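User: Predict the structure for this protein chain, please.
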Amino acid sequence: MNMQAPTGVIPPSAPKTLADTGLSIVMMRDILLKTVFRKNLEHVTAMSEAICLSLPLTQQLVEIAREQRLIEAQGTLHAGSGKEMAFQLSDAGKARALDALSQSEYYGALPVPLEKYKEQVQNQSVKNVQITRDRLLENMGHLILPDRLLEELGPAVSSGRSILLYGPPGNGKSAISNGIRDALGDVIYIPHCIEYAGQVITLFDPIVHTLIDEEPGEVSSLRRTDNRYDKRYTLCERPTVMTGGELMLDMLDLNYNPVSRTYQASLQLKATGGVFIVDDLGRQEEPPQALINRWIVPMEAGYDILALQSGEKFEVPFDTLVVFSTNFHPNKLFDSAALRRIFYKIKIDGPTQEEFLKVFAMVAKKKKMPLDEDTLIHMLKVKYPTIDNVYANYHGNFLIDQMICACEYEGIANKMTPDLMDRAWSHMYVVEEEILH
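Assistant: Here is the predicted structure, written as structure tokens:
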């Protein structure tokens, strides 16, 4: 996937004062103490890196803790200290760290206040991404798609609104969903965690968020010179959350760990600025209508409502391109009110014979399977009439892989024959018959 430099994304400015962080001194001090205690840190540079705060501001925080006799200097004349002053927690500091840990086990990067995060979400909204036809083709070039479908997908993706892909199984709905994700192709800034009402909610998830190792030149320059890049954020690809039959309604709420007394962001909050793909809709334990009802307010209003353990509810941004994919007819899944709220409904049909043959030839070339005219004629004239000439895009991969496995077993070079096609075909469908017990 080609990643685009975030030309339209404003980097989050680094706080110039402790007040600019938007956090209370007590919260920052306690996170510093917990981090020093848990990670056994001695030097301010290591503390600065661990809590993701600039060196001068971290030094100020250490001085505040020193004045409160929670941190004390060790001096610089001990092994491994170099020229940097070493610090350690005092007995009072250790007691305060343990007390803070009993309230919340969270330590590490300072959080970003929810209100400040909302501003960054606006700056890098997925609705600001404009997808061109060429960009869509570049990321779906491995698929044989009719022009009509591309004409529908382009505006749908650029809108940043919800999309429902439906149609018979095995025709690339999941692949198209992935192509939509790849077509977004730029980067955004994701905070390690956010803060609301004194609670820390971990947002960054390495499974969802892919770090960018090399930042664009402009961003690197900002970091080196003016220190305008807030280290509480990380530079990532636009996130993608992909779920299937395992999706449950409680995954769309905050996940509270009663042992560590910490919160993990909901799936759709992790997908902010990116794509949320619900694959195989209709195969979840939850009724499809219940799932879509959960998204109605977020999709229409642009915000979601979450709740803390205390029961307090609050709004978080919902800036996500939601893609639903299903093998069922939409009328069997939702009522008309729910369908009306899904902005784009796009049917993904099976290929024509001509399109299928293009896919079949492309797969054969990729897998180094020579095409054989007699076998192709046998497949089209003998096998497909048995299923009313209904073609599916997955057939090519399935049949060719089956023939390759047979050739490997026989110890012969890859080749197509009518007999091998018959053997492959026999594994593609289950014979309709009664099984006697």
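The two ends are 52 Å apart (CA to CA).
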